[in-house]
Amino acid sequence: QVQLVESGGGLVQAGGSLRLSCATSGRTFSNYAMGWFRQAPGKERQFVAAINWSGVNTRYADSVKGRFAISRDNAKNTVYLQMNSLKPEDTAVYYCAASTGPQYVPGDPYYGMDYWGKGTLVTVSS
């Protein structure tokens, strides 16, 4: 069974940085695309970033482009989200997600992700 465990959330001031990590287990990590999503209070879950199996291809939501960076370490079965220049509107629960294939699917609302972690809270104060 695939398990995803996020860490690294917390409280940070606007303009600050955080790095989220997602440790995975239960299957061969390097074969699958991964992603990050977020859900703010009262809002729907939204796409943040995705990375393909090798790490060569990435994609970002317009709202985080240039500030966030997704990466992966296949040797450690871990995907990361480096978040810089954080804004109060970035406040949300951030979820790690895993696909059943090597590529993410931009035409799908959830980019082809089928497995989800429980989330980690990021709060950005103004």
Query: In angstroms, what is the radius of gyration?
Result: 13 Å
Largest sheet: 7 strands, mixed
Number of strands: 11
The average pLDDT is 96
What is the terminal separation in angstroms? 40 Å
Number of helices: 0
User: What portion of residues is helical?
Assistant: under 10%
Principal-axes geometry comes out as: globular
Identify low-pLDDT runs. none
Q: Beta-sheet strand percentage?
A: over 45%
SS-based class: mainly beta
In sequence order, what are the helices and strands, one letter per element? EEEEEEEEEEE
What does it look like?
With 126 residues, the protein is mainly beta. The protein has no helices and eleven strands. The protein has strands at 3-7, 10-13, 18-25, 34-39, 46-51, 58-60, 68-73, 78-83, 92-99, 113-116, 120-125. Strands 2, 4, 5, 6, 9, 10 and 11 form a seven-stranded mixed sheet that branches. A hairpin with a 6-residue loop joins strand 5 and strand 6 (58-60). The radius of gyration is 13 Å and the shape is globular. It starts with a strand and ends with a strand.
Identify the notable features of this structure and list them briefly.
globular, four-stranded antiparallel β-sheet, seven-stranded mixed β-sheet, single chain, 11 strands, mainly beta, 126 residues
Describe the structure in brief:
The chain is mainly beta. Helix content is 0%, strand content 49%.
SSE layout and pairing:
Elements lengths: L2 E5 L2 E4 L4 E8 L8 E6 L6 E6 L6 E3 L7 E6 L4 E6 L8 E8 L13 E4 L3 E6 L1
Parallel strand pairs: 2-11
Antiparallel strand pairs: 1-3, 3-8, 4-5, 4-9, 5-6, 7-8, 9-10, 9-11
